[in-house]
Amino acid sequence: MPLIIPKEIPAYKILGKNAFVISKEKAFHQDIRPLEVLVLNLMPLKIETENQIFSLLANSPLQVNITLISTKSYIGKNTLQSHLERFYINFAEVSNKKFDGAIVTGAPIEHLNYEDVTYFDELINIMDYLRVNCTSTMYLCWGAMAGLYHFHKINKISLDKKLFGVFNHKSINDDLLLSGIDEIVKIPHSRHSGVDEIAIRQNKDLKVLLNGEISGASVLKDSKDIFILGHPEYAKYTLLNEYQRDLDKGFKIDLPKDYLDSNNEPIFSWRSSASVLFANWLNFYVYQETPFKLND
To answer: Rounded to the nearest 10 degrees, what angle do helices 271-280 and 46-57 cross at?
Structure first.
């Protein structure tokens, strides 16, 4: 079954070429209850992030209805206000609803202490709401760090050098999230911070699923939620665009590790693993666990 998004959103035309999407009007006539998935998009390039996440949800055998929200306490300047007004709503508009699943994206604000983030109080309210009113939430990159900090008191730690590139990971615990995945799992990382690995291992409520020799604990779970410290949703050229962005800003940055071929062209080596992670989360953590009637 397809992903349900408005015909007018940019992702509809893009994904229609290689993924299963239908309009809300067509979905209305199908005799099936779609999964209700909330996406809190904290990334500055919101349309790009929409396309990335939607493409990974779109080929599931499940019908998925997407609700996009953004923070009210901070409005980014990198996305047209008309786009935000047309496709996004504020948290207050859904705070009395329940959702089958939710995704909280990363944000390029690792240099800030959590309490110094303009919208952190609002984010805490949203995370607490999701904990009670959502079957399972997937947190990505900075979103995962914020979730681990809020729910499990795991502090983030500044890295000596930016972790930037595509890194290998191995499974260290069996879990349905990893069903059908390769023994070596490639995940892009683009971050200046890590997490307290010792505290993670000592926390009995957390289970590390994928660990990288360089990137460390990268995919974790607790009783209901998934925390991914990388960016499996990234498209083929995202790391290259970030590299060029940082160069243009005058930052000192190395080429992304294990990402480019001999002609300096990106190799899209993580797509299949990302698809498995998202599909397994949607199936095993959301669809198999959620009640048919959400209010139940």
So the answer is: 70
Segments making up each domain of the chain, as ranges: 3-287
| Alpha-carbon span 188 to 211, nearest angstrom | 13
Identify whether the C-beta of residue 95 lies closer than 8 Å to the C-beta of residue 69: no
Give yes or no for a contact between 178 and 221, defined as CB atoms under 8 angstroms apart. no
User: What is the DSSP code (8-state) at residue 108?
Assistant: S
Whole-number Å distance between alpha carbons of 60 and 76: 31
Q: List the pLDDT tens digit at each of the 296 positions of the chain.
A: 456 677 777 877 766 555 545 455 554 544 467 899 999 999 999 999 999 999 999 877 788 999 999 898 888 788 888 998 999 999 999 999 999 999 999 998 888 899 999 999 999 999 999 999 999 999 999 999 999 999 999 999 999 999 999 999 999 999 999 999 999 999 999 999 999 999 999 999 999 999 999 999 999 999 999 999 999 999 999 999 999 999 999 988 999 999 999 999 999 999 999 999 999 999 889 988 888 888 76
Calpha distance 249→247 (Å, rounded) = 5
pTM: 0.89
Domain 3-287, second-level architecture: 3-Layer(aba) Sandwich (3.40)
Measuring CA to CA, how many Å separate 59 from each of 18, 159, 183? 9, 36, 23
Which pairs count as long-range contacts for 247-254, CB under 8 Å and 24+ apart, including other chains? 253/162, 253/164, 254/162, 254/164
| 3 state DSSP class of 215 | coil
- Catalytic positions, please? 141, 231, 233
